[in-house]
Amino acid sequence: MRSPSGCLFGLLGFLLIIGWLGLMVFGPGRGGGVDWGDEGQSEAVRILLVQAFLAAFGFLSLMGAFNAKGLYLPKSELHALLSAPISSADLVRYRLLVDGGKTALSGIIFVALFWNRLPSPGYGVFGILLALFAITILGRMFSLALGNTNLWIGRFFVGRALGRIGFSIGMVVWAAMIGLLVKADNAGELFGGDVDMRARLESAAESPLLTALLSPLRPFAELVVAETPGQFLLWLGVNVAILVALFELCARSVGEIREATLTTSEALAKRIGAMRRGHTGLAAMGRTERKAGTRVRRLPRLFGHGKVGTIAWAQLVGISRFSLATTLLGLAVVGFAVVMSLEIDGTAKEQVMMSSLLITGLGTMYLGATMRFDFRSSLSRMESIKSWPVPAGRLFFATVLPQVFLITALLLLGVFTSLVVKGVFHPVLIQCLALIPVVVYAWVSLDNAVFLIFPVKYVPGQDGAVHHIGRSLLLLLLRIILLSVAGGLLALVIFALYWGTELVGLDATLVERVAPWVLFLGVLMASWVFTAVGGAALRRYDVSRSIS
Amino acid sequence: METHPPLLSVRALTRRFDTVLAVDGLSFEVAPGEILGLVGPNGAGKTTSLRTIAGILPVQSGEITVAGRDLKQDPLGAKSALAWVPDDPQPDESLTVLEHLEFTAGVYGVRDWSELATGLLERFDLTEKADALGSELSRGMRQKLAFAQAWITAPQVLLMDEPLSGLDPLGIRAAKREIREVAANGAAIVLSSHLLKLIEELADRLLIIDSGRAVFSGTLAEARESDLAERGGSLEEIFLRATGADDQDDVAGG
Predict the structure, then answer these.
(1) pLDDT of B69-79, one tens digit each?
(2) For residue B2, how far is the Cα from the chain centroid?
(3) Could you give phi then psi for residue B30, rounded to 5 degrees?
(4) For A390-431, what is each residue's pLDDT tens digit?
(5) How many whole angstroms from its chain centre is CA A237?
(6) A327 CA to chain B: closest CA distance, Å?
(7) Are B133 and A289 in contact (CB under 8 A)?
(8) B76 CB near a chain A CB, below 8 Å?
(9) 8 Å CB contact between A380 and B90
(10) Phi–psi pair at A425, nearest 5 degrees
């Protein structure tokens, strides 16, 4: 925030965050779910609910430990701290304090979320923050144990793919939850509906097994739901004592973790670096290396052997090799849009048009934001890219083409699936299908053109995050405004056509036939303009921005 | 004696970043088969000059001609005749070494690239790494791949920024041999490096720049004859005197 514009964007980002937190505290949805302040609710149930929330957070924290065994140290400190005359226990204490600071920041969001649900919010805040810190320490203890080769657990996991174990456990839990949903006769039964939810909770709170399982979290839950100064002081003292004990236990039982610390810190630094360079999906997870001995599959030159075809081929190779998870997620999103489109009623023509519109609209916006296999993933190579003897407009086109190709394929699959399941067809489908690739191209090209003019992206660990949130928000707004202007101009043209035919007394059905193709040509023209702007932005792109 | 027109000509090149003048009226020429050693202290404007000549940064002021093509008027023609080896090559993480060569050949319109690629992989000791992904390459391997990518385009002008970074002694020897061979085949080479020994070994002429301006241009023999050095002085001594660093050294040394 060194410039006036930086201050402005920083302020915008700050207001956005405050607005978000304010919405959680005072917004219309704050009373949803179970009201903890309900006088009819027993204290046992309140404590059970708090314990359940803390247990879920603790589970996530322990799963996170699988991805970071040993101690994580930032790249800038890693070698300096490991070679400095500092004991391992002090290193752990230092990182725990940093973790504590970060937990306090994220704790503010939880506090805002639960503010109106706490019996005494002023007391409950302390409970939430202390509990989150304790859970963070427990997670850190687990990751240290996994990286400690003096312990059996550390020796057991040497050389094993811990990330996969954590991922598998997470998947089992998700599968169990989905199974629970399917087993319930309907969602209403599971989330209340005809069943007396309160009676179920009361019954659960009296379960000896559940009480025993969740008992380690009880002191924190007691502080969260404390109502009187006496209760608050008592449980605050207990919690602080537990926290200090956990803190010291974690620091003193550290053992030999240097090797695991080096491996973990370097892997995480690589992942953060990949995200800074704009990678998404598995590439950002740092999984850009193959198992030894596995061969890479060669992809055919789908876009020809010319310069544009060569660049598009290389982009497609990147997508096919490292973005399976992102593509599967995209498929899931399109699946969701398809399920939504099944609810559309009307004539066959209306159903075809509305289903196509819904799936294309939702899919383009979401997939365009998540499947970014474009200039964002090429920032580290911009120096080479700009030295290629390829016209900037063609280079721009070739770079975004595979992403458009992939999103279009997913959307076409979605539209076909929706119509096949519904069993409807109308010739208007041909026009809809023709429009999908140009609409996707228009959005992706606009998105990239704006990105090349204002290369703003938020990455973890970035300085000035608030400033970047503000800028990103404004730039998203700019993209939507530009697309709306293009859409508005097209609507005007079509309206003028209707008006003109009416004026000269021609049949209105003629315009109905022509209008979709006018729309098609209009979107195509807008795409051409966005490509030209993108090419010009690429020519002007200053590589010293991305290479520092 | 037959004289060839220069393959690279830079006239009054000036480049500014906001208020900072990075390159200030730089002019030089490189003839076919000639290796120009570009040296200067950190921040002297070497990389900015090379990036501008390579068409990576736009030309703000001045003229650049590559193989007879004006970079401003015919950027694609100029770029086609030029290859750029950056100081820290960043390969595409998802392409294999061989695919990188296929890709470069496609972008530069090189026909029958396959045989050329096989030969280059051998010359740069990359045959065993042909199927390795860009993300799996070490620093030295990335450097070798950047050489091979530049070589496959058969450039008339070759720009190299710290080309020996990350190479092992064997790789350094091979790289020197290859650079000499490319020059012998008629290419004009600009070689920027802080390794003065390398410049002494390879360069036919020397261009010392400081604060974006040329402070010496000529052969090493001419530099040794000049008042920058005692007769037979080392390049290090010439460099320090040309950039005024020896005065600071004296002050620092007391």
Answers:
(1) 999 999 999 99
(2) 26
(3) -130, 125
(4) 999 999 999 999 999 999 999 999 998 988 888 888 888 888
(5) 38
(6) 16
(7) yes
(8) yes
(9) yes
(10) -150, 145
Q: State pTM to two decimals.
A: 0.71
Interface test with B, best of A271, A276, A296, A376 (most B CBs within 10 A): A296
Would you call B94 and A322 a contact, using CB atoms and an 8 Å cutoff?
Answer: yes
Q: Is B147 on the interface with A (CB under 8 A)?
A: no
**Residue A58 to residue A328: CA distance in whole angstroms:** 28
The answer to whether the CB of B232 falls within 8 A of the CB of B224 is yes
From the number of C-beta atoms within 10 Å of its C-beta (0-12, 13-18, 19+), residue B125 rates as: middle
- Among all residues of chain B, which has the CA nearest to that of A383? B56
The closest CB to that of A307, out of B56, B107, B135, belongs to: B107
Window 321-340 of A: residues touching B by CB (8 A cutoff) are 321-322
ipTM: 0.86
**Contact criterion met (CB below 8 Å) for A1 and A7:** yes
Whether B57 contacts chain A with CB within 8 A: yes
Tokens of B198: 């390398």
The answer to whether B31 faces chain A, any CB pair under 8 Å, is: no
Tell which phi-psi region holds residue A278, choosing left (phi > 0), alpha (psi between -120 and 50) or beta. left
Residue where the block lists tokens 């201050």: A7
- Stated as kind and residue range, the H or E segment containing A152 is helix A152-156
- DSSP 8-state secondary structure symbol assigned to residue B190: E
Helix intervals (H) in A323-427: 324-341, 348-370, 382-387, 392-422
* Token couple for A477: 């707004």
Please answer whether residues B226 and B216 qualify as being in contact, where contact means their C-beta atoms are separated by less than 8 angstroms: yes
C-alpha pair distances (Å), A278 with each of A84, A439, B87: 33, 24, 21
On the CB side of B95, how many CA atoms lie within 13 Å of its CA?
Answer: 21
What span, in angstroms and rounded, lies between the C-alpha atoms of A429 and A434?
Answer: 9
The alpha carbon of residue A164 is apart from the nearest alpha carbon of chain B, in Å, by 21
Instruction: Report CA B83 to chain centroid distance, whole Å.
Output: 9
Contact criterion met (CB < 8 Å) for A307 and B109: yes
Cα angle value A246/A114/A44 (rounded, 5°)? 70
Condensed to tens digits (0 to 9), the pLDDT of residues B7-19 reads 999 999 999 887 8
Contacts of A459 (CB under 8 A, 6+ apart): A272, A275, A276
